[in-house]
Amino acid sequence: MTSVQNSSLANSAISKAGWRIIPLLSIGYLTAYIDRVNVSFASTQMNVDLGFSATVYGLGAGLFYLSYSLVEIPSNMLLMRFGARAWLARIMIMWGVIAAAMMFVQTPNHFYALRFLLGLAEAGFFPGVLYYLSHWFPTRQRGRAVAMFYLANPLAVSVMGLISGPLLALDGTGGLRGWQWLYLLQGLPAVLIGVLVFAFLPNTPDDARWLSPEERTALQTELDKHPVADEDHSGGGVLAVLSDRRVQLLAAIYVVTLSCATAFLLSGPAILMEMTGWNLPEVSNIIFYGGLLGAATMLITGWVTDWMGQRYTALIIALTVDMFAYALIVLGGTPTLIMAGFVLAQMGRGIQATAQAALWTDVLRQRRLAIGVAAISSVANMGTFLLPFAFGWSRDATGGYITALYFWPPLHLLAVGLGLVLYLDWKRRGSVKAG
């Protein structure tokens, strides 16, 4: 088979995979992210009904990330043992049931327990999918694949902004409060998607009946071209992965970006309403459009970084954009500038999220990828547990969110510095294309 024929067959296989597996996984991630952060909209009613302080709310919201971080690595190890199809389906079905059960919360302990269980159930989905995609998409097209999957993240913000208001408006229907309807109707779809994943998702290209034998062979040939310079694949254990300097830098950057973005988003409606004086429908509209812009920049970043052959430049630019965006939120002073800062932050998050996730799959490979991505995610989610709690405590202690937000720009300045160190490390290694 000539190289032209092999490339043509590989492209055909990649195109089929893009249409057959990514939409299903993206919808799954969309529901996961909604079920993770829909508490931000539910809290506008729930906290009043149940008398939750900002500290109680921040602790409960953050507990998801504590349990999530504790079992990320074991979850990915089990995925490799049982296969992506069964394990990802199990994750979705369990989290959907628990997310819907949030409607029964009545006390702080109920809230804490269910958020903790939700984190246990959902752990491993995101890093598991990244590991799974690395078996389908070569490096030269992986940025686009990751962007198409990760697109669900900012779209989830838009969907929440669009539908959470009407769901909260169901208040009183069937004897349920609006926040109870929100949890129920945003939780159950994950169960259905989990069933579809189990029914239709192939574990590997070898299991895909919609690929011809020639397409499978050509795809594997392309996957084997992944750059392996400076990789030691003899040590697949957790300690060997964590000792990788690049994993440490990527984890440190992800700690900052994920914890800041999540802490802000978990209280986003309340923060924006407090700082601008606007009502919930007005704030919901801004959140909706911010999510759409974040999705657009995410897609563009996937294409551009694949074309460039590296993600480092996009990551540093995005971290800088986020730093200025949060500075605008804190110092803007007017509702228009504050909302502009929020939208700009969503765009920066779209760029850096794609660049980071694609970098993980560029830097690591096979078992090191499964463990490394889970390790990066675990470390970051531990920080994401702490920051929402500190954010809520600060709100109760100072009477507003602004004091805590002053830390966001300096934290992103730190992330910019870490990104530059990562970039210089890549240059020192010889600028191996795409990682």
Describe the protein's architecture and organization.
The protein has one domain (20-207, 236-428): MFS general substrate transporter like domains (Growth Hormone, Chain: A, Up-down Bundle). 80% of the residues lie in helices and 0% in strands. The protein has 22 helices and no strands. It has helices at 3-20, 22-37, 39-50, 54-70, 72-82, 84-101, 108-122, 125-133, 139-150, 152-168, 178-187, 189-200, 213-223, 238-242, 245-266, 268-276, 280-308, 312-331, 335-363, 366-398, 402-405, 408-428. Helix 15 (245-266) packs antiparallel against helix 19 (335-363), helix 17 (280-308) runs parallel beside helix 19 (335-363) and helix 18 runs antiparallel to helix 19. The chain starts with a helix and ends in a 7-residue tail after the last helix. Residues 227-236 and 431-435 have low confidence and may be disordered.
